[in-house]
């Protein structure tokens, strides 16, 4: 008989995800980390959030554990982090609808907006600059705007990954949907490593807070 929790989460149909979920859940907090982007467009500036998620999965040893979940239209991977558990998510919807996948996954795993991390590109920071922002407005980012709308909250922590802004304002759309240049690609490995470090350090610190032992 399939466990009721898995049926509620809509994960029972996925054998790869089932292997992850059937392992005993760590006693601490659970966090969702979503890499925003456009599915099928790897290597573009607008999907750098998904690239960070790929590096995070490799760091946590779950790069081969991604499983598609149709209920939230996303690829998911579960990873332990000390006593906490991370739910890694890559939406299979376009950027403007990423929030539907994020909100559905948060519902499935019983998480609040404060327990959902968004990783996304940031035009107003040069390539290589990172900033971890706690809540606030979408600042013109359509993926973040979608998440705010679907979660009905702006409290999500966000890792903003700088991609720089083109000098011609009319070229923004082509710029964000374009691939990184060869010189920019040389900077990416270090950038992805630093982004992963920043995320993990922040999550570890929050997991050790006063509410770390309380399950959502």
UniProtKB/TrEMBL annotation:
An example Gene Ontology molecular-function term: tRNA binding
Pfam families referenced in this protein's UniProt entry, alphabetically: Pept_tRNA_hydro (PF01195)
Enzyme Commission code: 3.1.1.29
InterPro entries assigned to the protein according to its UniProt record, in alphabetical order: Pept_tRNA_hydro, Pept_tRNA_hydro_CS, Pept_tRNA_hydro_sf
The keyword RNA-binding belongs to this UniProt entry's keyword annotation: yes
Known catalytic reactions: an N-acyl-L-alpha-aminoacyl-tRNA + H2O = an N-acyl-L-amino acid + a tRNA + H(+)
Any one GO BP annotation for this protein: rescue of stalled ribosome
Keywords carried by this UniProt record: Hydrolase, RNA-binding, tRNA-binding
Gene3D superfamilies, sorted: Peptidyl-tRNA hydrolase
Family named by the database record: Belongs to the PTH family.
Function: Peptidyl-tRNA hydrolase that cleaves nascent chains-tRNAs that are not stably fixed in the P-site of 60S ribosome-nascent chain complexes. Acts downstream of the ribosome-associated quality control (RQC) pathway to release non-ubiquitinated nascent chains from 60S and 80S ribosome-nascent chain complexes. Does not act on ubiquitinated nascent chains, which are cleaved by ANKZF1 for degradation.
Name of the protein: peptidyl-tRNA hydrolase
Gene: PTRH1
């Amino acid at each position: 008989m399939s466990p009721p929790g898995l049926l509620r989460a809509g994960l029972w149909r996925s054998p790869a995800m089932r292997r992850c979920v059937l392992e005993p859940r760590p006693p601490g907090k659970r966090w969702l980390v979503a890499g925003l982007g456009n599915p099928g467009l790897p290597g573009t500036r607008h999907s750098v959030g998904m690239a960070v998620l790929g590096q995070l999965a490799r760091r946590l040893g779950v790069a081969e554990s991604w499983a598609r979940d149709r209920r939230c239209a996303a690829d998911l991977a579960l990873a332990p982090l000390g006593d906490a558990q991370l739910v890694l998510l890559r939406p299979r919807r376009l950027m403007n609808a990423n929030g539907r996948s994020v909100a559905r996954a948060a519902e499935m795993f019983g998480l609040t907006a404060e327990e959902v991390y968004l990783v996304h590109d940031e035009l107003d920071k040069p390539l290589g600059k990172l900033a971890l922002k706690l809540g606030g407005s979408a600042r013109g980012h359509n993926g973040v705007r979608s998440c705010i709308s679907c979660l009905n909250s702006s409290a999500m922590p966000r890792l903003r990954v700088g991609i720089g802004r083109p000098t011609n304002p009319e070229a923004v759309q082509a710029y964000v949907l374009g691939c990184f240049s060869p010189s920019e690609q040389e900077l990416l490995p270090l950038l992805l490593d630093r982004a992963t470090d920043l995320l993990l350090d922040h999550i570890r610190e929050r997991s050790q807070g006063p509410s770390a032992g309380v399950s959502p």
